[in-house]
Amino acid sequence: MIRTLLALRFRAFLAGLANSMNKSKAKPKKSVGTWILLGLLVVYALGASCVMMYLLFDFLVAPYHLMRLDWLYFGLAGTMALGIALLGSVFASQSQLYDAKDNALLLSMPIPPKYILLTRIMPLLSMNLLLCAIIMVPAMVVYAINVGFSLGGLALQILAMVMIALLAQAFSCLLGWLLHLLLKRMNKAFGALLFMVLFLSIYFGIYSQASSILNSMAMNGQKIADTYESWVWPLYAMGMGCTGSWLMLAFVGIAVGVFGLVYWILSVTFLKTATSVPHTKRRKLEKSAQVKNPIHAVTGKEWKKFLNTPVYLTNMGMGILMIAALPIAAIIFRGKLMDLLPQLEMAFPNIRELIPVLICAVLVFLSSTAMVSTPSVSLEGKNLWILKSLPIAPRQILLGKLRLHLLLTVPLSAISGLVLGILFQCHPAELILVTVIPALSTSLSGVAGMVCGLKWAKLDYISETYPCKQSVAILVCTFGLMGIPVVFGLAYYFLLSSLSPTAFLALCAGVLAVLNSIFYRCLLTWGIQKWEQL
Amino acid sequence: MLQIQNFTKCYGDKVAVDNLSMHIAPGEICGFIGHNGAGKTTTLKACCGILQFEKGTILIGGKNIANDPLGCKSILAYVPDNPDLYEFMTGIKYLHFVADIYGVSQADRLARIEKYGQLLGMTDDLALSIGECSHGMKQKIALIAALIHAPRLILMDEPFVGLDPIASHQLKNVMAEHCQQGGSILFSTHVLEVAEKLCDKVAIISSGKLVAYGTMEEVKGQDSLEQVFLELEDQL
Mean per-residue pLDDT for A7-22? Predict the structure, then answer.
């Protein structure tokens, strides 16, 4: 039974990916290209993360080995892996375990809830293992290169990595369960957003201090070692285990024990938690409402969907929050930034001229994190019949959906650019460009996102996590837009360095405007046909 | 009001509906009967423009659904068998959304929400989020939404499933009233007694083919509709 359920779970995941990439069985050749593109994107994302980790561990390995604190090196790698895996899987655990659409169906069958739970946890555990590998594998490679390699040591380090993933999964299941209980008592989407903001605040708090933390870690190895030994003994045992100590057995015991305990608690409560109905408040009926035209009505509907879908709001809302937070942070830290400029000027004499370029690059990059329009077609899901049966033209539907994206992101990014431009004392021409380019970029993310959302629409998803986080449309759009500043930067460096930064930005604005119009035309021609075929 | 001529719909190699022709005049209620998978839902979805089809013509009030889908949709309403509505909206917000798309005035929509909400016992529950509603409550919201623009043709896929006895009774009254005012209804059902009592016409479909069609008297004669249906199924 478990094998059947596990096969179903993994098949659903793979089928979801394959279906969204190859809806048309008549065109298998196209899907090969898409698979290659997806593969390249995955390699790019994993490669970039691994290189970053490699550099970090390369900085730590020598001092720790000299201090004979090799165990602490692995202890720190394990701590980071645990943190990253936890961060990456809490929301997925909550939605996959408790919000899956087939929970009721499976619970109605003669399957013990503990098996349903276990088979839902397994794909999450695989994901956690991958996240842990991104941290632990570079740590192992750096250690093998700098200190030495042995097969036994490698086996123990791999065992530690698996156990860290197991421990992270246990904690993420527990937090996912608590999150689910919390969300039942408040607006789910806002609760999830609040939870995520808190989570990311801690993460970015640590990240912003990374340099000083890293130096402090290198300088105060013994102090940290003492803290580990007395306060986080399991990670001390894990670190010792990686260097060949029998304490690995204790760590394995702890990881398996914690996972087993959490699994037992969740399996006992799974039926009740997964099937409980949220607390309903009797609201006052307000019958009258403002009469809207069809496009505004669709936008209003999309807005409500956005506000009431936790995974949608948390993923895209975070991007919007970051665009808004950037100028606020710049205002708060203006003094420090202005003090930093002369120092930077010593290393990069042209830095002041490049400030508008940097502002645009950051805001264009952030626009790739606020893909409000991309999942909106797939999110129609089983409700697609409503818009299909109503007398509203596909053009109006698509424009209504796009309108929400534009309203949420374009004015905000333009204002962010303008505020940053004023703060950094840009000239009038530069001010116009730092306002227009982020606006064009977020507009492009909306239009191109809609086109990709239609191209890789998937209406039969099991969890809303899929269209909002895991779909091909999101992957292609996010990485595609992230690539724009990189492509522009490379073009400037290799081909256009003779241009002034202002002229270069004007050229970028022109290219973005052309891309906008191409995708807009594509949306209103091919996109309409595609919508009609859904 | 509804004219279906030689309608054919295929899913890959499978012919779901084969050369179906029928018509419903203003003021008529037509019951659409058939076994599971016979092609009822496919036909209803094609009539309301949700499904594209290969052959045939479907005219709604003289307009062709393939050429003028918006014109057709503006005078019809569709109630699906499974009321999958926007669960993130309250019932009242959903009704306003549908009214906005149809361009119904504030006064008309409020009057109809009041009338049908009271009739189906839903007025207070319209403040609830649709996600919190039971299947029957969602069905009632879908029915009110279907009636909010005073359609001339209503297409309903098993509308009585999930309704409580009072709401079922009220729905029958609403259907009768709609047809008295010149509107038309095509609805699928497995409850043959209801079809027998309510319908002017009946269409029986089996494996995508129309096997009996006409006024209730023409189709059943002196027998019950159930007997006729079972005999037809035996013959096929």
Answer: 61
Q: How far is CA A531 from CA A466, A524, A527, B97, B232, in A?
A: 20, 10, 6, 20, 40
Residue B198 and residue A473: Cα distance in Å, rounded?
Answer: 49
State the Cα–Cα distance between residues A377 and A451, nearest whole angstrom. 10
Residue B62: CB atoms within 10 A of its CB come to 10
> A277 and B132 in contact by Cβ < 8 A?
yes
**In angstroms, rounded to a whole number, what is the distance separating the alpha carbons of residues B96 and A513?**
37
Sign of CA dihedral B132, B138, B140, B142: positive
Q: Are B152 and B183 within 8 A, CB to CB?
A: yes
Kindly report the number of other CB atoms within 10 A of residue A14's CB atom. Answer: 10
The per-residue pLDDT for range B209-222, each reduced to its tens digit, is 888 898 888 887 87
CA distances (Å), B80 to each of A460, B83, B177, in order? 18, 6, 21
Check CB contact under 8 Å for B84 and A382.
Answer: yes
Mean pLDDT of A329-334: 85
Listed residue (B51, B74, B58, B53) closest to B153, CA to CA = B74
Indicate whether B120 pLDDT > 80. yes
Average pLDDT, chain B: 89
Asked whether residue B53 carries a pLDDT value surpassing 70, the answer given is: yes
Q: How many CA atoms lie within 13 A of A402 on its CB side?
A: 25
Long-range contacts, stretch A203-208, CB < 8 angstroms, 24+ apart: A203/A83, A203/A87
Q: Taking a contact as any Cβ pair under 8 Å apart, which residues of chain B between 128 and 187 contact chain A?
A: 128-129, 132
Place of tokens 């039971």: B134
Contacts of A278 in chain B (CB under 8 A): 132
Q: Which of residues 41-70 of B touch A (CB under 8 A)?
A: 45, 48-50, 52, 69-70
CA A466 to chain centroid: 12
Q: What is the pLDDT of residues B165-188, one digit of tens each?
A: 888 888 898 999 999 999 999 999
The complex's ipTM works out to: 0.85
Q: Are B202 and B213 in contact (CB under 8 A)?
A: yes
